[in-house]
């Protein structure tokens, strides 16, 4: 990699943005191509995603949104450009693709293990599939999530996969242990710490603090006013506290935030008291 290189990054989730942030200032140009209006919108929402995009632009990173790469172009056997879905051509000496994953479980369809149409596999609280002594974890596991009332979900994140591995191993070795999953994600972009805990599509998002100063907490509500997720920037450990609140089986609602948005942190049972 040299300072003269032009790099295109496909994908505006964690992997794509982390790659773009690392490359900014090290190469001639970084262009990020992504679907949707702003980066990380499915997780953080449009307002926070828009502020993140502005932060990247301030560092010289260019964005082409609501688009995708149609094909890669070569010259003398080397990548020289990418052509977007609308026909636009962008110079590219290197193309990094953070395009997600596909669940390859077709080989199990005649095994007796029930496979869902999307390739995921339902598990119980012990990560056991419908077939006895078959345990499932990681991206392919449609497993109960403690923080959403034990409804099942497939969540592609290495931290949860590691936790699944631990729980599955305990149960395979005869130490019956129930899953207590609270999704938690984090990243650092240009020295700014972003964290998220929870799960589900937000009906409403309330930001407390300053988006401009990148010091805020965003509460994600469902249609009933329940807080189903929380993201923050430079407000640690508030998201970790919310994850612990969910782990303890407690619920946070919109009305709990009206007077003092962080009073609920005093209701968390400390490790010493548990």
UniProtKB/TrEMBL annotation:
Cofactor(s) needed: FAD
Keyword vocabulary terms for this entry: FAD, Flavoprotein, Oxidoreductase
Record-linked Pfam families: Pyr_redox_2 (PF07992)
GO cellular component: cytoplasm
Domain of life: Eukaryota
Similarity section: Belongs to the FAD-dependent oxidoreductase family.
Protein name: Putative apoptosis-inducing factor 3
